[in-house]
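User: Can you write out an input/output pair for a complex, sequences first and structure second?

Assistant: Here is one pair. Inputs:
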Amino acid sequence: MMRNLLKFKVLPAAHHYAKAFCVLNIRKGLTILCCFALYVTTAHASDGGFKAQQSIAEQNQDLNGAIYSIMRWYEDVLKHRASKRYYPENIQNIQILEAKLLTTPRDNIALKVWMGYLKNGETKIQQVKENFVFDFNRGHRFVGLNKLSSKAIYSDASLGEYDVNYYQQRRFVYAWLAFMDDNANPKLLKKAIEDAHYQWEIGTQKFSGLLLQALNRRNTLMGKGRHFLRSIDSEKVDGKLQLTLLSSWRGVSPKNKPSIAKIEQIIELKETANGYKILRIKEQHLLPDIAPWEKLLC
Amino acid sequence: MLKKILFSVLFYTLTTGLSLASSKLPVLSGVGGNFTATDMYGKTMQLDDYKGKVVLLGFGYTNCPDICPFTLGYLNDLYTKLPKYRQEQTKVLFMTIDPKHDTPKHLREFISYFNKDFVGITAQTKAQTDHIANLFKIKYKEIGENVPVEDIRIVVKKQDKKAGEDKVRLYDHSVTIYLIDTDGEVRNVSYTGTTQEEFVANILSLMPKSNIKIENLRLKKTAKNARATAIYGNITNMSNQDDVLLGLSSSIAQHTALHETKIVEGFARMVHRENQILKPNQTLMLKPMSYHIMLMGLNKPLENNDVVEVILKFKYAGDIPIQLKVVR
């Protein structure tokens, strides 16, 4: 007959031994944490517009398609293919300063942007606040644009990096994220994915093959979820554009467990008249930033 | 004091036998996965061998002068806070990043110093170590070699020392502890800065749910000088599959048994039951002249309001410790 009562083991002396190193470890840890916090603050402060895009993407898990429309609009504005009466003429650069998903009116995304434009050979800045109106019930269709305010700003800020290329790249990236999320809006990417090669490594699993095949395998492995863009780095390598995307992913695994990922994708692109064509994608999953001490070494 | 209260609440949750919520900890996609290594007994092992258990995996080396002993002490501390039946559903693994120095034998001596249930593992080569480190995204690098052994604090001296091993290597390495669920998927990374209350709660959240509901279970006060009593109350199987009540254990009685009282030819007879199947949503009502659990050969008579600890044993729900009050 069973007779043993639940027993708790007595702690061995090892615990006391270990405690002796506690103070040293905590002091070292705090120093590293402070440096890390400073790094994070600095990195994010350098691109307020991007941070704003991120924040709206996280308010609703299905906004990559909507942000794609915003990026496409500003790209068209910079290519002088689209305009509004309250916009200045000769816009050269647009920096997004704030972006907010509104609950009233619904399906609106409010943006505050600085538009750098040329007038009499001088660069001037106009601050524009406007609402992008979407129909979220109909595939996040871009319905229109409402002016909130438009006024001249006196600033010596340089908006140089927020040019056509900036928005063209982001238009492509958000289309790609929306495509990965739903596999439902291939028209956003047009022919950009034809013949593209996709190689991924997720834990012990690896795959290399045509993009659609690789994406299907990846979705089977990861389950259903949404991507949130964290950063984009672009550089020219051997005459080709190479984008390095870091995104976080949240979803549900095939076993119905909540799941997250930190994904690095290196995308090699060929520039075409209509935008980009994907040549190859290389993806690996990193340790998600679920705690600041992950870089702590002993 | 607050810690004690938190642990009391946690322990109470376990002892009531109510369902634990399924874990909200996310799977860390692309982190971890199955690997092959050698355990501290010299046997080939795979991480998948531990499927069905919650695994805590840490990386380090036996010559580590600070964080590794600290981490293992921390793990021992929280491991001993788990009830015995939860310890059996948990496995703590410590993988060395210095396979050249840390032989299985030495690992065994080192790990056993902290806890004999823990298992040390080693890869055969640096390349295999790198492969596993890459799977779990841990970083390590050698920061010093030929360091005289007497210059560092060593927990356990190596017995199977080879020539030249009076001087050792030191490493920088990640200090993360991986929490791996019963399917072998990484669900969290922690370190010794994680509060033990949080860590224990995370471990328990990954364990199989206890779907046994226990209501009003109590012990009957014994008559004067009597050495037997009975347990009454309700036990319900809340799961969607059969479970089996296998028995009960208690340190206060020499024998325990599940009995059913039957009336045979006008006489009440106690029939011994080896076990009792509980269908989904079925309640076993333990009451006089029906099913009841007998405790025989009591160490001492039970007084009103005494509290007695017993463990109900189920085929699928496992062992459920519970504190019962003695009533008239």
